[in-house]
Structure formats: structure tokens, C-alpha cells
Amino acid sequence: MTTLTAFPVDELPAMWLRDNCPCTDCRDPRSGQKLFQIGALPDGLRVETATAVLGAAGEPALEVVWAPDGHRSAYPVAWLEANRPGGTSYGDRRTEDGKELWRARDLAGRLPEADWDAYVGEPGLRARLLESVQRLGFMLLHRVPEREEQVLAVAETFGFVRETNYGKLFDVRVEPDPNNLAFTSVAITPHTDNPYRDPVPTIQLLHCLVNDAEGGDSGLVDGFAAAALLRREDPEAFAVLSRTPVPFVFRDAATELRADRPLIGTDALGRVREVRFNNRSIATLRLPAAELEAFYAAYRTFAALLLRPELQLDLRLSPGDCLVFDNTRLLHARTAFAADGARHLQGCYADLDGLASSLAVLRRADTLEPLAELFAGAGSAEYLGEAVSMAQHMLQAGARAEAAGAAPHLVAAALLHDVGHFAGEVTGQDLMDGTDNRHSHTGADLLARWFGPEVTEPVRLHVAAKRYLCAVEPGYHDRLSEASKHTLAVQGGPMTTEQAAAFAALPGAADAVAVRRWDEAAKDPDAFTPPFEHFVPLLTALTRG
User: Residue ranges of the alpha helices (H) in 84-218?
Assistant: First the structure.
């Protein structure tokens, strides 16, 4: 494990360290909230002494005595490992950097779906599904009871219903006098709901009660992936759409709503954080003629991009299906259907902060025992033609990362990189037989139950990193084991020049390359292999809660 020598105090910003003092004089022991104002800390703050001690629970800690006021702080080593400055940080996980961007083909065989009874009854599964809403933007529940207002009960499993002028819930069916085209049988192209609200409802739920009509199929588009594609293909169009406020308006006899927001919302670092796209709700823009010309050119380009078939995930909701999705990211659509056919969905809105809260509480009660069981059970199997077992290989990779002084999230990623071989429906043996089991994605999806993207994304990208290194590093392919060369061919072979450039630009790509190198080196049957328990303190410090 990392020792205190890895934390030279003079490299830790003094104000940051003091601001995070966990003592009861600085934090309320019940709520964890700070009891001081940042301006109350003394000027000239510096570390007087730093000593290795045992914390209150017997864990290794670093005790700091501060000058000029003599205050004492004790920081658990595990906390320092997980939070030391300079580690990989995805920052605001509402942005594209905290997501897995996808096209329809990327989700083949790995839709985030489950039956209602299992979702309700198994906290670990519920956590994985809720995490999928954060990461992929949606989850799909099957066999949800087909009764009126059940959609409200679904929302209440993770948050609070957001009531609007449509009520607590709304019926999506043909209405005789509709105030919204959603309540007709016409086709509706990809869009987000309620862009005229401030704030916009961030989660939407649609529960299918009846779907006997011809047509009426649903579709989802990852708006963040589409925006990233626009930024790559037409940077000027992206810039125009991210800086131009659009007036979104809704009016009926009892309501008048308006919000002026760009179609693509970004944060201060330029990362996509929100997509608002609804052609039915855009009112008249009042801009100089040249700006209008530029806006409409960019608007049409983005609209055409959103209709590309490869971006749309096609779904046909059956009675009992409930789709839950991020309304600030995913665009949803439907095909036209026969007006005389029976089609009835009930929907409601909720918000991402409630979902995030429920997920964090679930994680507090979740242990790493399922991972320990994988290492002790399925992980003892042969490792795809190599001279070590799967568990030995992963433990060796983690040990190599640790010996190299890697950051804790990288040690964890190296240790856990191959869990997808024995956690997915398609096995590692299937990979050896010629079917790509996409174990990098399956493993990352599993690990997202406990860890953030700093751990999951190097795992998700480690297969791509092998393909990347074979493309850009002379001699790398020749150093691969025969089994690794075989799986490389199944996984797509070396990247093209264009693919390699796109990979190198991804958040987490450098970390994935580091994991890949430890992966290739961790196949020595005579090497020392620590037990899984050796890594548990590090993993525990990294778990999200």
C-alpha cells in the first residue's frame, strides 16, 4: 500500500489540506458540515510538523500540527490516497467527461435493463441500473405492473416526482383537443422535453400500458455523443449553437412558459453539460441578420446529424416496459402510428439530484464482497491460454501498478481490468473462439456500481489501448503473447491513424494505456501475487458514496 512517504507535506497546498480537516472542531460530527468560514483561517498558514500516527479507528493517519495557531488535524492515509492533488478528476459528472457516449451499435447486447421485481428487490442491481441513468443516460425496466399511476411508484424508487402544468403524471395518447403534438398520432423526431422550463425537468419516465397500434415505435439518441460529433465535424457550428440563446416557449389557455438557452449548453471548461432540442417549441429569434444566418446553418446541420440512423437506438415499448432517461442529454422520438390503434403511455418527471442521492445511499450499504467472490470463484479459472489464472493475472497487474507508484485509481483499474471476462453473458472462452465478448465494457459497467469514471474508464478503454499501441508504437505487437495477438484480431486489430487520433483525445486514454502495459506484463506464473484482501483498503477509499 502507499505509505506516508508518498505524501510529502510541502507538496500539499496548505489551505486545501486545512480546509479538509476532519476534526470535530472543524466539522459537525453528525452532519459532516464545516463549522468555520474560509476567511477565519489564519494568514500565513503552514505545516509545523507532520507525523505518522494511528487514527481513531486504528487506521494509518497523518497528523499535522499547524502554524501559526497550533491546530491539530489527523488525515486518514486512505483519504489522502483517494484525494491527493494531481489525481485524475472528471469534475462535474453531469458533463460529457463523466459519461459514456454511445451510438446504437455500442449498446448491442448490453442494454441497461432489468425486471421490475429484481430491480426493487436487489439493491445492488438497482444501484447498477440507476448508475446507468447517470452514465449512459437511461434504464429500461420490464414487467412493471400495468396499472394506472404506476409510473409514479417507479419515480419514487429513486427520487421525487416533479409536478408541472401537465400534473403529477401525463397520458401520452391521442387526445381530441391536444395542447401538444405528443398527444397526437404523428411522428415526432428526436427532441428533449420541456425546454421552455427553468429549470428543465432532468429525468423523464414513460410507462407503457398499451401498445397495439401499428407504428408508435420509440427511439433514443445520445445528445452528448451527437454534440461531440458536431464539434469534431463542424467546430464553428458547435460554437454557434453553444453560444446562441434560443427562446423556447409554451403557451396554452392556462400556461405561459419561456426559457432562453442554447441548444448545446457547456460548462466553464467547454464541456457539454446539457442539450435542449425541440423544434416544436422554438419561438422567433431576434438577432442581427448575419447571426441568424449562422444560427440557422448550424441548427440545420445539427438537426440532420441527429437523424443519422447509426445514432438512434430503436425500441418498441411493450406493456409493462418503463423507460427512465436523462432529459438533459437523451433525445427521444417516436414513429407515427395509426390513430385508431390503441397506444397509451403514462409519463412523469423527476430530477437527477434525487437519483444521485438514492444511488449514493445504496452505495453506502454496498460492500466489495461481490468482487472478492469473483476473484475467489470464477477468477480462479484459466486465463485465456496464459500460464496464470484470471485472478492471478489481475492481482499481478494491480501489484505492478502499485509497485510503480501509480495513483490509487490506476491501481484499482489495473487490478479490476478483466472482471468483464467472467461477469458478462459472453465469456472469455467465447472470445478465444472468435466472438468479441466486449469484456472491457461489461467490466466497466459492473464496476460502476462502486467506482467513478476515474476507475471505470481506463477499464472500458484498455482493449482499445491495446489496439492503439499496436498502431502507434513500433514493436508493440511483436511483444504481445500469442493469446493476446489472437484476441487482438477478434477485437478489431490495430487502429487506423484516424482511430488512434480519436482515442488519444479521450478522457482516460493515457490511464488506459498505463493499465494496458501492466496488463501485458502480468502473466508470470512465478511472480509474487498478493491476495485480493491486500487491495481492499485502497478500493474502499475509492468507492463512491
Answer: 116-121, 123-135, 150-155
**Alpha carbons 517 and 147: distance in angstroms, whole number:** 53
- Those residues with Cβ within 8 angstroms of residue 463's Cβ, 6 or more apart along the chain or in another chain: 439, 440, 491
Query: Which of 50-64, 300-314, 375-389 has the highest average model confidence (pLDDT)?
Result: 300-314
DSSP H or E stretch at residue 219? strand 218-222
- Enter the pTM of the model: 0.78
- Above 80 in pLDDT, residue 387? no
User: Rounded mean pLDDT of 519-527?
Assistant: 88
Q: Name the nearest CA neighbour of 328 among 220, 226, 195.
A: 195
The contacts of residue 376 (CB under 8 Å, 6+ apart) are 391, 532
Specify which residues 351 forms β-bridges with: none
pLDDT of residue 426: 46
The CA distance from 162 to 168, in Å, is: 7
Q: Give, in degrees to the nearest 5, the angle at Cα 525 between 524 and 530.
A: 90
Cα distances from 496 to residues 75, 153, 302, 468, 502, in angstroms, run 47, 48, 27, 8, 10
- C-alpha cell, 34: 464545516
- 447-479: pLDDT as tens digits: 988 888 889 999 999 999 999 999 999 889 988
- Per-residue b or e along 151-187, where b marks 16 or more CB atoms closer than 10 Å to that residue's CB: bbbbbebbbebbebebeebbbbbbeeeeebebbebee
Q: Model confidence over 472-508: pLDDT tens digits?
A: 998 899 888 888 888 888 888 999 999 999 999 888 8
**Which pLDDT score, from 0 to 100, does residue 2 have?**
41
**Which of 515, 512, 493 shows the shortest CA–CA distance to 504?**
512
The answer to whether the CB of 407 falls within 8 A of the CB of 88 is yes
Q: How many CB atoms lie within 10 A of CB 495?
A: 21
Q: Is the dihedral of CA 408, 387, 444, 449 positive or negative?
A: negative
Give the burial class of 149: count Cβ atoms within 10 A of its Cβ; 0-12 exposed, 13-18 middle, 19 or more buried: exposed
